[in-house]
Amino acid sequence: MKAKNMKSDKLNEWFRYNRIQSIIALVTILSLGAYIVFSSIQSCQTKKMILSDRVKTRAYIEFSDFTIDNFKIGEKIIYVLSAKNVGFTPAFNVKMIGKIKIATIGVTKSEIDYINNVKNAIGEGSIKSAGTEFSINFNPDIILNDSDYKSIINEQNFFYIYGCVFYNDIFGVDHWHRFYLSYVQSTDRFTECIKYNDTDKNEE
């Protein structure tokens, strides 16, 4: 009888030991899980803070103005694009591309795809400090003939200008800013077209 009680005590002790070990293991797993979740949240918050700082401090280049030269019959049209770094840090490897189109329909996707390719842009990849305004002359090899001139004046055709600027910020992220305008004779001004006026959303 005594031996039987001893066996029972040892068995109960074994069960208690294993129960304690199970509780310790469960607490360890829960603690590890909580640590992983906390680390993940902290990492996300840190990443958001870094991205937020980048957005606040990086370069931003926008087109500020343009000038049309030689808009005369028999002359080759030239236009000057002006842009400005409105951000807080320098923009690197700055290049631009500009195009002109005279037609009844607007710019096609394939024409937009062409200006979206940085390989087609011009410029030596210069550096533009914060607040710097700069210009590039474009000569798109379009000679304004009498028919085109009259069609624009009579609003049978439209005079489109479009282009894109490419640059890198101080964090090494690629950026671009694109514009697309059309000339309306009745208002004697260029207005933004509905599509293709856009900028990148790259932040990392």
Question: Could you explain how this protein is built, in words?
Answer:
With 204 residues, this protein is of the alpha+beta class. It folds into two domains: 1-57; 61-199, Immunoglobulin-like (Sandwich), CATH 2.60.40.10. 35% of the residues lie in helices and 35% in strands. It contains three helices and nine strands. The strands form two sheets. Strands 3, 4, 6, 7, 8 and 9 form a six-stranded antiparallel β-sheet that branches. It has a three-stranded antiparallel β-sheet with strand order 1-2-5, with no helix packed on it. Strand 7 and strand 8 form a beta hairpin. It is elongated and about 105 Å long. It starts with a helix and ends in a 5-residue tail after the last strand. The model is unreliable at 43-52 (pLDDT under 50).
